[in-house]
Design brief:
Distance between the termini: 170 Å
Number of domains: 6
CATH class of the largest domain: Alpha Beta
Number of strands: 26
Helix content: 40-55%
Largest sheet: 5 strands, antiparallel
Shape: elongated
CATH topology of the largest domain: Heat Shock Protein 90
Structural class: alpha+beta
Strand order of the largest sheet: 4-3-7-6-5
Number of helices: 19
Radius of gyration: 54 Å
CATH superfamily of the largest domain: Histidine kinase-like ATPase, C-terminal domain
Length: 670
């Protein structure tokens, strides 16, 4: 058992222990004072000497600098522990200043930014580095902060950390980004969109607004940039911004915008922008341009009106010839009618029937041209011959109205390349028009001349003239120079449309001139001039040979009246005929009658004319029979279908009597 200590030894040990405890406490206080910057130097006493140790000047400087820096700043160790921090740093992280020293930097940021912080610490010990991290303050709020690391030469313990709160900057970036996005969206909108403040000043606008007003509208008053107008009780009144926003609902308002001599038709819709307190801070106005739609609507309304007018005119024009034909029929039925009156009635009925055919032909020609179904048979034509035939065609109408017609001498050197029939139709239409729209006893002049590489043909009259507003649309479908109820001149309003289309198909142009009502008019046709041929290639018109001998003719027609009258016609020519009203009867009659000629309608019940023709052409006994299609369909495709079915000729109802007589004469001779 060890020796026990004497009381003096115990007291000595207790005294030494107390001294050591006091020195340890003094050391801790000294260390605290050094860390707090309260000590400038430390005096160390040894047995043989005394040594004074001063704190590093650089460390004191860093401490002073941190205190003076207005931005959040701190000194860190290499592992991210906070050595020193200023008040601004403490305020940013929402922590007491005394709690920061010794705290880990990673505890001050959001978990998603920890990895970035470690990389930043590693790089920042060697060189300057910066990254944007999410700071998590004591309240739990996440704040975007720029972490900037700066290595310090005289502080080997770690870098200096500078923080910058970029919340406001990111908010500005977001606003700018949203502004750019909003403007980009506006610029993609086809409508004109205007954003105004409560005073009516334009703050934002789409590209369509610039196109509409021809300039930049930003910061201009709405009423100045877009002086809109609207119709109120028949009056055209200004529509101002204050009036627009005073309405609770302005969706679908139709307004107009006069500018640069034009008028734009717009649909206005308005929405409001509100502050957080519910007060109106501005308005969004959308303007949809419907100018083209209005133009189309007006064109459709005009076309519909003209269509209705045309139908009324058509009924009127059809009744005109039907009335004398009806009267003529009654005269022919009457017993006590002088022979010369009967003859005149027949001539009148023939003339009126011809007028109806011409009217229908004009309509069909316009339809075919519109659908591109007319093919021109172009050849070099002597213009003088074309105009002579046109003048002869119009001569009866000139005589009827008692006009003085003059065909001025035509230069023999004027040649054109075109379709003889169609060009004759053009000039006869113009002459007929001049005759109908001139008072009896008027004067009509037809002339032609060369103008460079063009030929100019003029038809002038002393007639009723043309209003100025009609000159541009006189060639439109159904247009009428005289649209009064008393219309004494007749016509469907398709003749000049036909003229224009045919002339343009020949590479030419047609125009009208007039000094106004009562001053007459002049129609001018220009055509490309053609080089004259080496010699005269004119031919005498083909004359039908006078055949002899009766033909057997089978007439197949489902309209009994038309079938019978056609039979009488061929009988009057000295031929024999039989009738059939359907395909079955036609095949039976053909086998029994052995006709020389078969006149077949196309639109028959049960079996159409094409099929009947094909069936008959298989019969050897009908090998020499002449097949003639007689139909109301006269388009090119119908003629082609008739040829393909085996028809030799195609005639449009009512058939041309002279042409039929010619075909029958040729068949009789062969």
């Amino acid at each position: 058992m060890p020796d026990q200590l004497s009381p003096p030894d115990v007291n000595a040990l207790l005294s030494e222990n107390a001294r050591l405890r006091q020195e340890l406490e003094e050391s801790r206080e000294t260390l605290r004072a050094i860390r707090a910057g309260e000590v400038d130097a430390v005096i160390v006493e040894a047995e043989d000497h005394t040594k004074v140790l001063t704190l590093g000047a650089a460390e004191q400087s860093y401490q002073l600098v941190l205190a003076q820096v207005p931005h959040p700043a701190a000194l860190l160790t290499l592992d991210g522990r906070v050595l020193q921090a200023n008040e601004a740093f403490a305020a940013l992280v929402h922590r007491d200043h005394d709690q920061l020293e010794g705290a880990q930097a990673q505890d001050l940021i959001a978990p998603t930014s920890v990895a970035s912080l470690h990389i930043l610490l590693e790089v920042g010990a060697e060189r300057e580095a910066e990254a944007e991290l999410l700071l998590r303050n004591a309240t739990g709020q996440r704040v975007p902060v720029s972490f900037a690391m700066r290595p310090l030469k005289d502080n080997p313990s770690g870098p200096c950390l500078l923080l910058t709160d970029v919340t406001a900057e990111r908010a500005r970036d977001k606003i700018v980004s949203e502004e750019i996005l909003a403007q980009s969206i506006l610029d993609q909108v086809a409508d004109a969109v205007v954003v105004c403040d409560r005073t009516g000043r334009i703050r934002r606008a789409s590209k369509a607004v610039e196109y509409l007003i021809g300039g930049n509208p930003i910061n201009r008053d709405f009423d100045d940039a877009l002086p809109l107008r609207h119709h109120v009780s028949g009056d055209d009144l200004p529509l101002r911004f204050a009036e627009i926003v005073a309405q609770s609902d302005t969706r679908g308002w139709e307004v107009i915008y006069p500018h640069d001599g034009h008028v734009s038709h717009l649909i206005l819709s308005t929405g409001f922008l509100y502050d957080t307190d519910g007060s109106v801070r501005g308005a969004v106005l959308t303007l949809t341009d419907i100018t083209e739609r209005k133009r189309v609507e007006q064109a459709l309304e005009l076309a519909d009106r003209r269509k209705n007018e045309f139908l009324a005119i058509l009924a009127h024009e059809l009744r005109n010839p039907l009335a004398p034909i009806s009267n003529g029929i009654r005269l022919l039925r009457a017993e006590q009618v002088a022979p010369h009156i009967r003859e005149q009635a027949l001539l009148l009925m023939e003339r009126q029937a011809h007028n109806m055919v011409r009217l229908v032909d004009d309509l069909m020609d316009v339809s075919r041209i519109t659908r591109g179904k007319i093919e021109l048979k172009k050849e070099k034509l002597h213009l003088a011959e074309v105009l002579r035939v046109a003048a002869e065609t119009s001569e009866p109408l000139m005589t009827q109205f008692g006009h003085a017609f003059t065909l001025e001498p035509i230069d023999d050197g004027l040649w054109v390349k075109g379709d003889f029939t169609r060009l004759t139709q053009v000039f006869s239409n113009l002459l007929n028009n001049a005759a109908k729209y001139s008072e009896p006893g008027g004067r009509v002049v037809l002339s032609a001349r060369r103008d460079g590489d063009r030929i100019v043909v003029s038809v002038a009259d002393t007639g009723i003239g043309i209003r100025a507003d009609m000159l541009d649309r006189i060639f439109d479908m159904f247009a009428q120079a005289d649209d009064s109820l008393e219309r004494a001149h007749g016509g469907l309003g398709v003749g000049l449309t036909l003229v224009r289309n045919l002339v343009e198909m020949h590479g030419g142009a047609v125009s009208a001139e007039s000094e106004g009502p009562g001053s007459g008019s002049r129609f001018i046709v220009t055509l490309p001039a053609a080089v004259a041929p080496g010699g005269d290639n004119g031919q005498e018109p083909v004359k039908a040979p006078n055949g002899s001998g009766a033909l057997r003719i089978l007439i197949v027609e489902d309209n009994p009246a038309l079938a019978q009258t056609t039979g009488w016609l061929v009988e009057a020519l000295g031929h024999d005929y039989r009738l059939a009203h359907n395909g079955k009867d036609a095949l039976v009659e053909a086998e029994a009658f052995r006709p020389d000629v078969i006149m077949l309608d196309i639109g028959l019940p049960g079996m159409n004319g094409y099929d009947i023709c094909r069936a008959m052409r298989q019969n050897p006994t009908l090998a020499s029979t002449l097949f003639i299609a007689q139909t109301g369909w006269g388009q090119t495709e119908h003629k082609q279908m008739a040829t393909a079915a085996g028809f030799h000729h195609h005639m449009v109802k009512p058939i041309d009597y002279d042409r039929l007589q010619e075909l029958l004469a040729i068949r009789a001779k062969t």
